[in-house]
Structure formats: structure tokens, C-alpha cells
Specification:
Elements: H1 6-18, E1 25-27, H2 68-89, E2 100-102, E3 105-110, H3 112-125, E4 135-137, H4 140-146, H5 156-161, E5 164-169, E6 173-175, H6 177-190, E7 194-196, E8 200-206, E9 212-218, E10 221-227, E11 230-232, H7 238-245, E12 254-265, H8 268-271, E13 277-279, E14 293-299, E15 302-312, H9 325-328, H10 332-344, H11 346-357, H12 360-370, E16 380-383, E17 387-391, E18 397-398, E19 401-405, E20 411-416, H13 424-435, H14 437-450, H15 456-460, H16 462-475
Parallel strand pairs: 1-7, 3-13, 11-20
Antiparallel strand pairs: 2-6, 3-5, 4-5, 8-9, 9-10, 12-15, 12-16, 12-17, 13-14, 14-15, 17-18, 19-20
Helix pairs in contact: 1-6, 1-13, 2-13, 2-16
Length: 479
């Protein structure tokens, strides 16, 4: 497994449960785990379940709201909760409170059109088994009760001029994926897996006997490994590594890197007034990862507030990457798709340019849309993780994740971004099905033990959904 993040850790745990006798090795180029995308300050820590993220429920031209993706994301999120609950039961996660906490999820909008959209979204979702209990209100005092900070500085006159609305549910969570990665990797090593940090993969290729040969450098010098299966969970570096592997399935794929920033405060008076993850609507042209949100974060035993993200740009594919990453990823086979993606996403280009040119005061105004009484002196700027959006061979810029597997199933890699970490178990089960078809049927009993109810099963059965929620809440110590 190349890359010491949440994806490799999740796949490793699944394989160790399914095939205890297999030899597993995790390779990480940096000196510690989860330093890139999985790190707690490199992502928003939202347990992505579509409870609050409006980009998963777009409005159709006829005014109705499409909840198809929201349901799919929530179904995948339930797989995560179930796997983690299984690992708690079996002692592989000693204390879930180290990485997951109950934090209400809210959607918060202003303006008559957005209020009407949110009302329709609530009507479409609230009767579904996975979204029961979601509340909706346009009453400022009700919203103040849910999240007082959102009403601080809003006058009665401004509320008459610009109405507000919100949805609220206590089913949301905040997740420290960096801590979870460390917990899972520790249990991997305890059960016999090998972890090597300071180890950078420089090349890999497959020989006629089906084995992969992985070459790299560590603190002792150059090394060579031989394996029947390779998983590339290296974040932004997954694309160039899969290109080096030379598999046919990566041809035509490209990547567009997007960076970001957050504002953060740990001021107790502010933290006490906002216990929620409140998501708004994205600006025109903004990628889904740039949906503005004001979040409660639990990191290393302390509570903070974080707002953002503000989009940025760098040609690096990782925060610790190189300025040449983007340019070195261009190949004859993906040049045309990348050009097509650029030409068909001019609104994204314009948005990024505006974000890059925006002054600090202009950016702070975005926070004041959520929290009008915000004071710049209370907030610090932090740099978020680097994301590489997938450019498909047809020239479509894809927001989300893409699993790439070789035809023979001997190598797989993950491209893309959100909701990524939150849905890692569902994504890795997909990897297992695609890469080990000869073992898939024999694995079903154990997979069913780890993740008892999946996908449409939960959506179609309100009683099963309610029982699953109650059980995983109890096992993960969620209120």
C-alpha cells in the first residue's frame, strides 16, 4: 500500500480481517502518517453524510431538488459507521472518542430564492429513512437556538430585507481522519503488518509472472519490493504513480490541483456559541470542495471553529509536492482531455482567479455572511490540504473520487477528493470486489459481519435504518 493515509489504512484493516495470513506493507514518503489530505487541518472533518452539504442535492431546471446523490453519499457513510463500530467491538479501535464526535449538521442560507430551495430540499429529504429527524425553520429565534453565532450581528431590519432559513439535525459528526488513520495503522502493525515511513516510491512495473516490482528510496538507500497486489493511496501523487505503472486504464486521465485556506479560532466565547457544522451555498463557478461552511472541530482534545474554504491554486499535487507536478503529469494521451476540461470550465477558472486576487478584507466578508459580528483579530489563517480534481478521458472535470483498477486486478489507485475520507470503507470494498473477484463470494460472510447493512438495504427499510443508527451511535459513543 503506497501512501499512509485513511484509504490505505482502511484497505489494510479490511484485508487483514478477510485474509489474516497475507503479508501487508504500508509505505509513506513523509516521516509520519496522515500529514497530507487525511490530516485534521487539511480537511473540514465533516462526516460527509449529505445532511448539510447542499452540493449533493442540486436544483433541477423545473425547480425540484434531486436527492439521488445525497442518498448515495449517506448510504456510503453508513458503511463507514458500521465498519468503525465493528472495529470498536473487536478492540481494534479502543476509544472512538479519540476521532469522532457528535456535531449537529446544518444548512444555512439567505435570500428568498435560497430559502425556497432549502424548503424544497427539506421536503424531499425529511421523509427518507436516512434523513429522518431533519428540522427546517425560517424563524430567526429557532435558528439562534440551534447556532447562536449565526444570528450575532443580524438586525431585525436586515432579516426583514433578507430572510434566512436553516435545516438542523443532531445526526451529524466531526471526524479527525488523521487520528483515525493512526489508530487503524497501529492495529495493522500490531497484527503483523509492516510500516515504513521516509520511504518514497520512484517507479513500479509489472513483469510477465504477474508480480509488481516497486522501486524507491528510504533512509538506508534504494530498495526494491515485489508484490502480487499494489494499492496506490497516495493522494495527489496517485495519478503520476499510476502513470508510471503504465496500466492501460489510466490513459486519458489527468488532474487539476486546487488548494485552499481556512480561518480558525479557538476563542472560548466564540466556540461556546457555535456547536454545529453549518454549510451554505457555493459561489457561481466554485468547485464543490469550496462550499462555505462554519464548523465546530474537535482536534487533539480541544474544540475550535473553522470557516472556509477559500480556494487557491498551486501546480503541486501535494502540500509537500513539487511545482513541476502538474506539468510532469501531462502526457500525449491526456493533453486533449485536459484542454477540453479547461475550455469547458471557464467559470471555475474565473472563480479561482477572483479568489487569488481577493484581498484579506474581501475574504473575511465571506465569514461575515455567516457571522456578521466576526472580528478579524479573533481568526488565524491556515492552509488546507491540496486536492487534485479528476479530469476524465472525455474531458469532463469530475468532482468526487475515481477508482482506477488494472484489468487483471493486480493494482488499484484512488483519484479525486471529497467525500473521499468519509466514505473510505465503501470505496475500499469496491476495490476489493474489482480486484479480487475470485475471492469475493467467499468473503461475503465476513464482510457482512463487518458491514451488516449496505446501500439500498437501508434506504428501503426504515426499521433497519433506525436499528443501524441506534447500534452504531451506541458503539461509537455518539449522543
Amino acid at each position: 500500500m503506497i501512501g499512509g493515509g485513511i484509504m490505505s489504512a482502511t484497505l489494510g484493516v479490511l484485508l487483514q480481517e478477510l485474509e489474516p495470513s497475507w503479508s501487508i506493507k504500508m509505505i509513506e514518503r513523509l516521516d509520519s502518517l496522515a500529514v497530507e489530505s487525511s490530516g485534521p487541518w487539511n480537511n473540514a472533518g465533516t462526516g460527509h453524510s449529505a445532511l448539510c452539504e447542499l452540493n449533493y442535492s442540486p436544483q433541477k431546471p423545473d425547480g425540484s431538488v434531486d436527492i439521488t446523490k445525497a442518498i448515495n453519499v449517506n448510504e456510503q457513510w453508513q458503511s463507514s459507521r458500521q465498519l468503525w463500530s465493528f472495529l470498536v467491538e473487536n478492540g481494534r479501535i479502543p476509544d472512538p472518542e479519540k476521532f469522532i464526535h457528535t456535531v449537529p449538521h446544518m444548512s444555512f442560507v439567505w435570500g428568498a430564492d435560497n430559502v425556497e430551495y432549502l424548503r424544497k430540499r427539506h421536503e424531499a429529504l425529511s421523509t427518507h429513512p436516512l434523513f429522518q429527524g431533519m428540522q427546517f425553520s425560517t424563524d430567526p429565534e429557532v435558528i439562534r437556538g440551534w447556532a447562536p453565532l449565526l444570528l450575532e450581528g443580524r438586525s431585525a431590519k436586515s432579516l426583514e430585507k433578507e430572510p434566512i432559513a436553516a435545516t438542523w439535525t443532531n445526526a451529524g459528526t466531526d471526524v479527525d481522519f488523521g487520528e483515525l488513520t493512526s489508530i487503524l495503522t497501529r492495529t495493522l502493525v500490531d497484527k503483523g503488518a509492516d510500516l515504513e515511513t521516509h520511504s518514497e516510491v520512484t517507479d513500479l512495473h509489472q513483469t510477465m509472472d504477474g508480480f509488481w516490482h516497486v522501486y524507491g528510496r528510504n533512509q538506508s538507500g534504494d530498495y526494491h519490493l515485489r508484490s502480487r497486489f499494489v494499492f496506490v493511496g497516495a493522494g495527489g501523487y496517485a495519478l503520476p504513480l499510476l502513470q508510471k505503472a503504465g496500466i492501460r486504464e489510466i490513459r486519458g486521465f489527468g488532474g487539476f490541483p486546487v488548494s485552499g485556506e481556512f480561518l480558525r479560532t479557538s476563542k472560548p466565547e466564540l466556540v461556546a456559541q457555535h456547536r454545529a457544522k453549518a454549510y451554505g451555498k457555493a459561489a457561481v463557478g466554485a468547485p464543490p470542495m469550496s462550499v462555505p461552511h462554519l464548523d465546530t472541530r474537535h482536534v487533539e482534545g480541544k474544540t475550535h471553529l473553522m470557516f472556509g474554504p477559500y480556494a487557491g491554486w498551486s501546480p503541486r499535487f501535494l502540500k509537500t509536492g513539487k511545482f513541476s507536478d502538474l506539468f510532469r503529469s501531462v502526457r500525449p494521451h491526456n493533453l486533449l482531455p485536459m484542454v477540453r476540461a479547461g475550455l469547458s470550465n471557464m467559470d471555475l477558472t474565473i472563480y479561482l482567479v477572483k479568489q487569488l486576487l481577493a484581498s484579506p478584507s474581501t475574504k473575511f466578508k465571506d465569514l461575515q455572511d455567516f457571522f456578521p459580528a466576526a472580528d478579524r483579530n479573533d481568526w488565524d489563517r491556515i492552509t488546507a490540504g491540496q486536492r487534485v480534481q479528476v479530469i476524465r478521458p472525455d474531458g469532463v472535470l469530475q468532482f468526487g473520487t475515481e477508482v482506477i483498477t488494472a484489468e487483471d486486478g493486480s493494482i488499484a489507485g484512488l483519484l479525486g477528493a471529497s467525500p473521499g475520507a468519509s466514505t473510505a470503507p465503501a470505496i475500499m470494498v469496491n476495490v476489493l470486489q474489482r480486484c479480487f473477484p475470485d475471492r469475493w463470494d467467499s468473503w461475503q460472510p465476513q464482510l457482512k459481519t463487518m458491514i451488516p447493512a449496505t446501500g439500498p438495504e437501508l434506504s428501503a427499510d426504515p426499521e433497519l435504518a433506525a436499528e443501524t443508527f441506534a447500534r452504531t451511535d451506541r458503539q461509537l459513543h455518539l449522543s
